[in-house]
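Record pair follows.
FIRST:
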Amino acid sequence: MRIYKIAAINLGSTSTKIAYYENENCVFKDNIVHTARALEGFSTIWEQFEFRKQAIEAYLKEKGILISGLDAVVTRGGHTEPIVGGVYRITRKMLEQSASEKYGNHATDLGLKLAYEFSAQGPQAFTVDPPTTDEFEPLARYSGLPQIKRRSSFHVLNHRAAGRQYAKDSGKDYRDLNLVVIHMGGGISIAAHKKGRLVDANNAIDGDGPFSTNRCCSVPIGDLINMCYSGTYTYSEIRRLINGNAGLMAYVGENDVKTVEERAAGGDQACGEALDAMCYQIAKEVGAAATVLMGEVDAIVFTGGIAHSKRIVDSVSRRVSFIAPIAVYPGEYEMQSLGLNTLAALCGEEEIKELNE
C-alpha cells in the first residue's frame, strides 16, 4: 500500500500550526507561536513571507521531513471569489485573487502563497474548504439594500469538520443531517448546515452576528454611520475598531476568555455581564439559524477554542437546548480536515477542483 506524505499548515495572526500525515495517521502536530517582538517589524502579513517560510522549513527539517519528499502541502485557505466547498489546487489565479485583498485578508492568505512556493520543490499544493466557500441559498444573500449582498465569509473549514465528526460519532451520514454549528474563537460564526451544505451563516470577520473577543459584528447601523462621519476616526481606525478593538476587548480591556472568566469569578461584575451578553447574542444567532432549517435541527454543535469553556457552553445551551440536542467538540478539527481531505484527493476519492480561468 502506498504511503502518502502530507504536510498541513494553518497560519494565524501570531502562530503557525503544522501537522504531518502519513496517509490518515497524524505523525506529529505542533503550533509555532510567534512573539509580538518577532512580528513587530512587519507592517503587513505579506511582509512575513520569508519569516514564516523559514520557520516552517526549520521545523520540518528538525523533524527529519524534506519538502521535496512530500506528496502534498495543504493550507487553510485564504480569500478568493466565492466558490463551492471541496479540495482545491492552488493556482496562480487563486494567488492573484488572494493578493488583491478584494475578498478579504488574513494570515491564511499568506498560507496559499507559501504552499504554492513549496510546490516548486515537488509536492502538490492544495487548500480545503476556504473561508469564501459559498453554498448560500438565494434568500440568504438579501441584506435589505440591493447594493450590498450578504456573503459567505466564516470558519467554513472547522464548521464542516466538526459537523462531519459529529455525524461520524453518531453513526450517521453528514449529508443526511441538519445541524446548527457554532464556532467560537477569535471570531464567532453560527451556520445552518442543511444536508451537508452550509446554506447560511453570519459574516464573522466584520459583518454580522454576535460580538466576540475582539470583534463587534452586528451593531446599530445608524450609530455606526454617525461614528464614521463624526470626524473623530479615520477609515483605518474604524476598521480596527470593529475588528480588533471591539467585543470583550472594548468592554473589559481583555480578549482572553479564560482571563475574563477568572476576573468574573473573582467578582468583576463588568466581566461577568460582558460574557453573559456575548452568550446571549450567540444564542440569538442559533435561534435564527434554526429558523433557516424550519426547526428541523438534528443537533447543535459547539466547536472552536472557546468551546472549552463550560461557563459559556452552559450559558448558551440553557437558551437553545429546547431546539435540539447539544454536542460539544472543543478546539479545532482544521488540521485533521486538511490532512484527510487531501489524502482523499490524492487517492482519487475526492475531486480536485480549480478556480475557472
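SECOND:
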Amino acid sequence: MIISKVNAEHYTWGDHCDSWVLKDTPGLSVKQEKMPSGTSEKRHYHNNAEQLFYILNGKAVFYMEEEKFFVNTGESISIMPKQKHYISNESAEDLEFLVISNPSTERDRIEI
C-alpha cells in the first residue's frame, strides 16, 4: 500500500503540531511531522529507541543533553537511547521533518 500525508493516520500534538504516521510497527516507526513557527516539544528521552530526524523544510533547533544543534533542510541528526532531547522551531517558517525510530517509541517516552 502506498502511504502519504493524504491517507496516513494523522494526529496533532503540542501547540498545533501535526504528525502523519507513515509506518508504525514494533521494530520501526516513520512519521512526517510539521511544527509551526515558535513551537517546541517537551524535553524527554527514550529508553530503547534510537531516532533519526531528517529535515524536509525549514530550520530545526535540537536541544540534546546540555548542547544546542541547528539542523537545516536536507540535514539529519541522530538521537541515541536515554539521550535527553527536544526539538524546537525558532524560525519564522513552518518546520517539516521525518522522524524515524528503531524500535518504535510507542510506550517508550519519558518526559522530564
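COMMENT: The CA atoms of residues 12 and 49 lie 21 Å apart.
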